[in-house]
Amino acid sequence: MKTYCFYETEWGDGALLFNERRLARVLFPAASPQALLAELDERFDQYKHVQGKDYGLISTLARYFSGERVVFDVEVDFGRLGDFERAVLNELRGLSYGRTVGYKDLAMECGRSRAARAVGNALAKNPVPIVVPCHRVLRSDGRIGGWSGPEGWKERLLELEGVVLGDSDRVQAEEPAI
């Protein structure tokens, strides 16, 4: 059964979509409740609204958006992603709050040292942002790089986690903990 529920944050209201007991999508908080409902109606009309079946994610997301360090312990449904894309997203799930990693470093962790661009493509397909923290992946020079989420949110999420951007000695001075 495909269901969804809403979550509230200081940044607005978003939605969580589930396939059975696995998280299938995280929709970022929208500009308005009407915009969120329109996206659900347009893209996810096969999902049914169910209250109380969020598997603890609503409170975890609220704590995250208020600046608390959290761990997202939920099964994820990556849908039709390929093996390498799944490997990238699964590897990224282990990256700690407030830490960043480079595209190339993430590619090497997944066994394909020359696949930095493919890592970027995998991140662009991430159906569960924040839970799988694609916002924590930066260019090798420490700059933001690509982002498929709402404009400005990558910077906001990193700032929330205490990551200082543009500093050559950024938080990542030590080896990434993936």
UniProtKB/TrEMBL annotation:
It holds the Pfam family DNA_binding_1. It comes from the Bacteria. It catalyses: a 4-O-methyl-thymidine in DNA + L-cysteinyl-[protein] = a thymidine in DNA + S-methyl-L-cysteinyl-[protein]; a 6-O-methyl-2'-deoxyguanosine in DNA + L-cysteinyl-[protein] = S-methyl-L-cysteinyl-[protein] + a 2'-deoxyguanosine in DNA. The keyword Nucleotide-binding does not apply. Signal peptide: none annotated. One of its GO terms (biological process) is DNA repair. Gene3D superfamilies: Winged helix-like DNA-binding domain superfamily/Winged helix DNA-binding domain. GO terms for molecular function: methylated-DNA-[protein]-cysteine S-methyltransferase activity. It is an enzyme of class 2 (transferase). InterPro entries: MethylDNA_cys_MeTrfase_AS, MethylDNA_cys_MeTrfase_DNA-bd, MethylDNA_cys_MeTrfase_DNAb, WH-like_DNA-bd_sf. Residues 83-163 form the Methylated-DNA-[protein]-cysteine S-methyltransferase DNA binding domain. CDD domains: ATase (cd06445). Coiled coil: none annotated. Its EC number is 2.1.1.63. Keywords: DNA damage, DNA repair, Methyltransferase, Transferase. Belongs to the MGMT family. This is methylated-DNA--[protein]-cysteine S-methyltransferase. It comes from Candidatus Aquicultor primus.
